[in-house]
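In the laboratory, one determines a bound structure by crystallizing the protein with its ligand and collecting diffraction data. In a computational setting the workflow is compressed into a single prediction: the sequence and the ligand go in, and a structural description comes out. We illustrate the idea with IPE.
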Amino acid sequence: MKLTAKSIHPLPNHVAIVPDGNGRWARKRGLPRVYGHREGIVNMLRMIQYINEHPIKYVTFYGFSTENWNRPEPEVKGLFALVEEFVDKHLEEIKQKNIKIRHIGRLDNLPSNLQNAIKKAVALTANNNGMTLNIAWNYGGRAEIVDAVTSYVKDKNKPQQLDEKTFANYLYTAGIPDVDLLIRTGNETRLSNFLIWQTAYSEYYFTEVLWPDFGKKDIDKALLEYSKRNRRFGGL
Ligand code: IPE
Ligand code: MG
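The predicted complex, in structure-token form:
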């Protein structure tokens, strides 16, 4: 039987993806790293479409971390330009598919063109009620926790009122359920400050496949493995 995610049970409700390996994909072909990022975006769109054909309600992509500012300026600028291009070219299509885009991360220190592109993507899809696509851009898990504490305190909350559920509502991901399955491509087995609160009980799946090469059969493999995991959440 041909492997297809449609026959896999249970599927995760929330999949988070660290699409790693774009730079290496390009270098292997003797191309500048930014070509890898371009191909990475093409693949992200393919994956969004594929995941959207399944009853998976939330997908979160790690696009740019608070630590990625340490990369050479041309690469950072190249990545920012690709996002604006993505919004220009593909927002309408995403909107038509009833996908709701959310941004998680800090907007304020991004260039204003990029801020506007992100705001536009969020605003234009705000009333969609199909799959939610979270884009982590200028995102850091520790920054998110610090920002949550800051707004909790600003709201004049009392410490004794704080519990995990209340706290989660101050995170960028307020209202979005915890991650069920975290996939990282590109042969690195670390979390890199991604969704550190939301992945406390996630299932992790790592693969050597570089992100631009990660196709339908690769995600099917990850989903199949997920369906076989025994999740106990600390119970028996
Ligand atoms: C991941 O690919 C994409 C982003 C972090 C934006 P990398 O750029 O990390 O590619 P490698 O790991 O150097 O191959
Ligand atoms: Mg990398």
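The first helix runs from residue 22 to 28. Keep in mind that any predicted model is a hypothesis to be tested, not a measurement.
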